[in-house]
Amino acid sequence: MRPVDGPFALTLHEANTDRIYCLNDPAEGQGLSQGMGLADARAFCPDLQSRPADPAADARFLRILARWAKRYCPWVGLDGRDGLALDITGAAHLYGGEAALLEDLHARLTRAGLQVRSGLADTKGAAWAIAHYARGVAPPGQTRNHIAKLPVPALRLPEDTVTALQRLGLRTVDDILTLPRATLTRRFGTDLLMRLDQALGDQPEEVSPLPDPPSFAAQMSLPEPIGLAADVMAGTERLLAQVCTRLTQQEAGARALLLTLRRVDQASQQVELRLARPLRDAARILPLFERGVSAVDAGFGIDQLRLEATQVERLPARQLSPLHAAHQDKLHDLITRIGSRIGLDNVHRYLPADSHIPERSYTTAVAAYSDPSGAWVTLRPRPIRLFPPEPIAATGHRPPRHFRWRRMSLSTARITGPERIAPEWWLQDDSWRSGLRDYWQVDTRQGRRLWMYHTPQTPGWYVQGEFA
Questions:
Q1: 3-state helix, strand, coil in the chain (%, to 5)
Q2: Which helix (H) or strand (E) holds 308?
Q3: Contact 277/259 with Cβ under 8 angstroms?
Q4: pLDDT tens across the length of the chain (468 residues)
Q5: d(CA 347, CA 349)
Q6: How far apart are alpha carbons 145 and 172 in whole angstroms?
Q7: If we measure between CA atoms, which residue out of 250, 323, 331 comes closest to residue 284?
Q8: SS3 of 383, please?
Q9: Hey, how many other C-beta atoms are within 10 angstroms of the C-beta on 293?
């Protein structure tokens, strides 16, 4: 929910139309409902404000909220796409009772800007019904009386079943309770009675807690202290094998590893390793620890080693092929080694950019977080070396036969061109505001192959690059 003044709804594009995904109380007060088409909703409520929904972001936030809710009880699970289910058995007294617990929960979430609906009852089904169609707490043993006056959808029934019940005049849960069970089973199947029994507590329904995130850590306690780098590397190798096995099982790769060495005086030494690519190959990772381990001060000895993958990314299994370039792995290891000295963020690579302007034809990116994107695509050859334009003394619209550049006297042997490049008018670039440039490839008798250009609007010659 979004705390705004007036009707507000999130929309989701489904079946070639925008439908209401979620809405606030003022929107519901205008007669809008979840699943209604946006065009119909605006006909009912012209003042409706809307935004596109992001279900993936909502799911991530709901999981974060579930971890936060463990402050109230250890048994927290997801309930649909927008709810949480908490089993507070044995935990409510820590907050002064069930009502006090709900009040504290509401207060904290309201301060965070969230609009919350909650219900508390003996069963999960009754709590869901109260949260969606009523408010408050159902006293112990009074679940039946508390949900009897609620509408039929409070039983979490399919939409077609709800419609069929309403056509028969069954509007509330109490209406269903007065009918024979055999009649309900013949007409609507067993799902209706199952939901009814779950709400009343006649059939158990457990809260399925979220699984704990996988732990990519291993620890080793030593009977005798060690101090040699070779011994530490041997222990690291055993721990690394365990961590990599868990990474393989989860199809993940480590981007950062932390080796903690506890000394006998209870002080700790840490060796952090950041990798240029996610890895789970122990044979490739182990040598990268050598530099950090060799700098460790063992003191009177190390009696415990702990290795943890502190940053993990997905690394799906791939088909092995002789076409896979092994030099790419060596390049990543080299980037990791250099990055361990100067920092991974300080190792950059050049990448092609979609621009015909020479100064804008490339961009720089952190090598550890980018991939080579192929060769530069140009209609004309480009020089290997590119530098800021350097003026030369020359006149005319064709390259001069004799000129001086960088204190060298050069003579033109062959010219190729011109290639006219116009400025990109939609970009603010002071160096290109002067207008057109006519580029020439100039081969000199002295062996230099230069990339020169002439500016027609303000006549002048410049050298901007050199071919191999």
A1: 35, 30, 35
A2: strand 302-314
A3: no
A4: 445 778 999 999 887 889 998 888 888 888 888 889 999 999 989 999 999 999 989 999 999 999 999 999 999 999 988 899 999 998 989 999 999 999 999 999 999 888 888 999 999 999 999 998 988 888 888 899 989 999 999 999 998 999 999 999 999 999 999 999 998 899 988 999 999 999 999 998 888 888 888 889 999 999 999 999 999 999 999 999 999 999 999 999 999 999 999 999 999 999 999 998 899 999 999 999 999 999 999 999 999 999 999 999 998 877 655 555 455 678 888 888 888 788 888 888 888 887 888 888 888 888 888 877 666 677 778 888 889 899 999 888 899 999 999 999 999 999 998 999 888 777 776 666 667 899 999 999 999 999 999 988 888 999 999 998
A5: 7
A6: 12
A7: 331
A8: coil
A9: 19
Cα 447–chain centre separation: 53
Long-range contacts (CB closer than 8 Å, 24 or more residues apart) made by 188-192: 188/161, 188/164, 191/157, 191/158, 191/161, 192/155, 192/157, 192/161
CA atoms of 86 and 71, how far apart (whole Å) = 11
Residue-range domains of the chain with CATH: 8-53 (3.40.1170.60), 73-200 (no CATH), 217-319 (3.30.1490.100), 385-466 (no CATH)
Q: Characterize 2-18 residue by residue with b for buried, 16 or more Cβ atoms within 10 angstroms of its Cβ, and e for exposed.
A: eeeeebbbbbbeeeeeb
Ramachandran quadrant class, 80 (left: phi over 0; alpha: psi -120 to 50; beta: rest): left
Q: What is the pTM of this model?
A: 0.59
